[in-house]
Amino acid sequence: MPVLDMSKVPVKAGSIYPAPYAELMAGRSSLRLGEAGGLTQFGVNLVTLQARALSSLRHWHLAEDEFVMITSGECVLLQDAGETLMRAGDCAAFPANSPDGHQFINRTDQPVSFLVVGSKAKREVVTYSDVDLVLTTEAGQASFTYKDGSPFAGPR
After folding, report:
1. Per residue in 52-80, pLDDT tens?
2. 75 to each of 16, 70, 87, 89, how far by Cα in Å?
3. Is 92 helix (H, G, I), strand (E, B) or coil?
4. Distances in Å between the alpha carbon of 36 and those of 33, 40, 49, 152?
5. DSSP letter at 9?
């Protein structure tokens, strides 16, 4: 099954973020292409952001590399150093354990799509740059804490 039937790849919308952050991801959806193709060593997702939507909270990965290529439309990449306009064909790479949070923002009135390829570490820690939130995933289980390690119970 090397060729994916795109009509059968389920669309994933929403977020695993806790409230109130999950609501901020309205207008984001993705096709889990790697999963649909049976890949287990790395993830491949085709993400679409509708007009004015966000890709995620600004974040960085402890154990996973991440690569993004814009496939259609345009968006803004936000990092510590500021903003970079990205258009179809532009690429960005985010090495693991580089604490420069990234986020994509669609500021246009048209959808933007981009391919995201990332490694699948057995244990991953994602730190959110602009909010007091950390996600740890291990053995398929996700848990959220504050940056001090205490359990997340809502914004403070």
Report:
1. 999 999 999 999 999 999 999 999 999 99
2. 23, 8, 7, 12
3. strand
4. 5, 10, 20, 32
5. S
Return the DSSP state at 98. -
Cα of first residue to Cα of last residue in the chain, in angstroms, is 48
Q: Give me the phi and psi of 31, to 5 degrees please.
A: -105, 120
Measuring CA to CA, which residue among 58, 25, 80 is closest to residue 130?
A: 58
- How far is Cα 151 from Cα 134, in angstroms, rounded to an integer? 10
The sign one gets for the Cα dihedral 30, 109, 93, 96 is negative
> Which residues contact residue 61 at a Cβ distance below 8 angstroms, ignoring those fewer than 6 apart?
94, 96, 97, 118, 124, 125, 126
What token pair was written down for 119? 């490694």
